[in-house]
Every structure is written in C-alpha cells, then in structure tokens.
Input
Amino acid sequence: MGSIWEIDFYSRPILDDNQKKVWEVLVCESPLDISTKVDSLFRYAQYCPSTQVNSVWLRTALQEAINQAGKAPIKIRFFRRQMNNMITKACQDLGIPAQPSRRTLLLNQWLEQRMEEVYPQEAGYQGGTNPSVRLEKPLPQRLPDALEGQQWVFVTLDAADFAEMPEWEIGFGEAFPIELAKVSSEARIPGILIFSPRALPLAAWMSGLELAFLRFDTSEEARLLLETGVTESWIVANIKKPQVLAEAKGFEEAKQKANGVHFIGVQSDPEAQSFAGFWLLQEVNL
Output
C-alpha cells in the first residue's frame, strides 16, 4: 500500500506588509499502522501570499512536496470542507484522489504545535483565534440493510495490547501509534466488535469510508453513531435496553479518559480468531 497524505491550505494568524492574511499549505504523511515511527513521516510546509491563493499555486506546491518525498501519495485527506473545490481541483490536476476526512490526527497536532510555537515568532503575527467555517451536519443515515451487523458488543482492551496488532490477522483496517494520541500504555481503550456472517463485505464497505469516530448520541434518542468523512454520520444502533444504555455511557466515559481513542472490529462471529476489519480511531475537535 502506498502512502496517504493529510493537507491543510488556509490563512494563518499572520499579516503581510499589505496587512493581508498570509496563507500556508501543510502536508504530512498519515500514520497507517500501530508501529509507524512518527518522526519518519514526511512533512512539508510553505507560506502562500494572499494574492496567489488558488488551485494553480496549490498544485505547484503539492508537486514540490511530491518531488521532495520522491513519490506521490495514493490519496490526500483534508478536513476543511470549505476548501473542497480548490483542494480537489489541485489534486485532480495531479491525478491524486482528494478525500474530505476527519482522520487527520498528525495534521491536527502539527497545526496546534505551529499555532503555539511557530506563528507567534513570525513578523506580523496576530494573536487570537483563526476561525474556520462551520458547516451544518446532515442527519444520520441508516446503514444499508445488507450491511448491518447481526450482533455487536462493547469491549475494552489495554493500550499495551495494541503492541501486538501487527501480528493480528486483519482484512481491512487502519491504525496509528498509541503514543501519537497521547495515551499511556496503562490506559483502557474502549471499542465495539461487530459480528456478521457478511463480515468481509461489511468491512470492505467500511474501508471505503473515511472512518472518523464512534459516539454515543442522546440528542434525540439514545443511539450509537459512526461518524465518517467530514460531516457524514451513520446509525450503528438505536439503544433502548437499560443494560446496553449503561454500557454505552461507560463506552463514552472510557473514550474520554483515553483522550478520545477507541476502536471498531468486524468479525464473522464471537469465536473468530481473525478480523475482517479493524480500525483504531480518535475523536478530536476540528
């Protein structure tokens, strides 16, 4: 499998000599498994004058990043949906699929680090927030009937258990180093296991989504939601039984204690020794 990149192209809290916001493109390689060495992942940054903010400039910057990396990624993720047209056009011109995604963990941390340590050192720095456009989320959708799990359960694993993940038999999936999420090896990581005789098709379908995170929602009725892409949401289950409600609340509490880290596993049945799919996830606020 080739590399996947995460990018952000947006204004920064810096003014140029004409009192116009300076823009910047950030590019970093996504960690794709538990044993990834974060320091070895590719990164690229370049400021852009406000007068040159367009897909042509971005395409040129991405080509320079590709030249430095020595190869192009198989996909580029971005979380700012309001930049969809410009980013998608630049990526299309390079023949690279662009995917709106909240699975941009390394990019989010890099942005936070630059906000604290890099931009304040620049001439023209303007303190305060650098707001992004908030877009309304559509209503959660039902999972396709043929892909709904036949059974599912809440489970937990020790963070240390994930050290053995490279040895697990997994059909589809993605992970990241636990330490990247700032979680100790002593933490308990919550998750769900979905059992289905159609485990492989279900896992394959899920792998085609940009899985973001699971959340227990009680805004209208108690239900477990799978968030994907930038705004999409799927109803995994409506929860009515008191025992399951208590387990769902416990899942959400454990997730918060683990800094948002959790997982989804897909298996054919509770006795299976392999996973049709397994994803390590983290809920973050963008």
Observations:
- The radius of gyration is 20 Å.
- Residues 255 and 261 are 6 Å apart (CA to CA).
- Residues 141-282 form one domain.
- The mean pLDDT is 92.
